[in-house]
Specification:
Length: 320
């Protein structure tokens, strides 16, 4: 019953570790199913023994003292041999699976992810590209993600692609994953890290390999020409107000590091660590008062004239 409920709850809507989309999660799902099968088998056998023992008692009262097994043998088999065998099988399977999951691949794509309260910085050290909250990877190619944290312990979890690995300040942990097919895979911080822990999500976006190369090239190309029209005014406002103190935009004087890099913000699908869709309405609402969408996050409300807000929106959406 409990097992049926768990399986039922896992099958719907939100990403499930039982719906693997890559070799690492596939392996984890296999171990999960094996554990479930063994647990169900033990449950059924114990249930059957309970029924049997209730019948046996009645038989004994009637003077029939035949036993299928001596009491000692029963304890040795049911209490020692069988549990040892089950635990041994699970130990071998989990240890060998863990070893397989941590095995280095040849020529992986290297990515660094740093956790912040409550968002993710994403760096491609070999291409000198920095972005946030959305991790582009080439489908079919192994990826090696080096994880660390700027503040407290976070945990990186993309259920459809891999297991969880913690991001620990001052330490570098490695997670290896491959996305078999192009697609969008939702990730989530899986270690309680403060008030907006639940809204510390992200996307892994697996692109066709050529589309991924294009994406990297676009991001490492020299910064675009200074924007024109309202976006130009937006850049001036961004650089001359508090925004630049917390955010970096490549090719401008904005070099802040306490908020996400916004160099490519216009090409992101989401806003606020995969909280809402990135569109003009949500962006305007976020800039004026990010606290309304994500209470307690570390971006303060900003007071702006309506035309300044429009200019900032035009500017950020122009950065792709
Ligand atoms: Cu977190």
């Amino acid at each position: 019953m409990a097992a049926a409920l768990v399986v039922g709850a896992c099958g719907s809507g939100s990403p499930s570790a039982l719906d693997p989309k890559g070799p690492a999660s596939e392996r984890i799902a296999q171990v999960w199913w094996l554990m479930l099968a063994l647990a169900v088998a033990v449950y059924l056998v114990v249930g059957a023994l309970i029924l049997l023992s209730s019948r046996r008692k009645r038989a004994a009262e009637e003077g029939d003292r035949r036993l299928p097994l001596s009491e000692n043998a029963f304890i040795w088999v049911g209490g020692v041999a069988v549990p040892t065998a089950i635990l041994l099988v699970l130990a071998v399977v989990t240890v060998s699976s863990t070893a397989e999951l941590t095995q280095a691949d040849d020529d992986p794509l290297r990515i660094e992810v740093e956790g912040f309260k409550w968002w993710w910085e994403v760096r491609y050290p070999d291409a000198d590209v920095v972005t946030a909250n959305e991790i582009h990877v080439p489908a079919g190619r192994p990826v090696e993600i080096e994880l660390t944290s700027a503040d407290v312990i976070h945990s990186f979890w993309v259920p459809e692609l891999a297991g969880k690995v913690d991001l620990v300040p001052g330490q570098r942990n490695v997670l290896r994953l491959t996305a078999d097919e192009p697609g969008e895979y939702r990730g989530q911080c899986a270690e309680f890290c403060g008030i907006q822990h639940a809204r510390m999500a992200f996307l892994v976006i697996a692109d066709e390999p050529t589309a991924f190369e294009d994406w990297i090239e676009r991001h490492r190309a020299p910064p675009p020409d200074p924007p024109a029209g309202p976006a130009a005014e937006g850049e001036r406002i961004f650089e001359s107000t508090s925004c630049a103190g917390c955010h970096t935009i490549r090719g401008t004087s904005a070099r802040g590091t306490s908020g996400p890099d916004l160099s490519d913000f216009g090409s992101r699908r989401t806003l606020g660590a995969a909280l809402v869709e990135n569109n003009r309405g949500n962006l305007g609402g976020w800039i004026v008062n990010a606290q309304a969408l994500k209470p307690g996050n570390l971006m303060p409300p900003v007071s702006l004239e309506p035309d300044e807000l429009q200019a900032l929106i035009a500017y950020l959406e122009s950065r792709r």
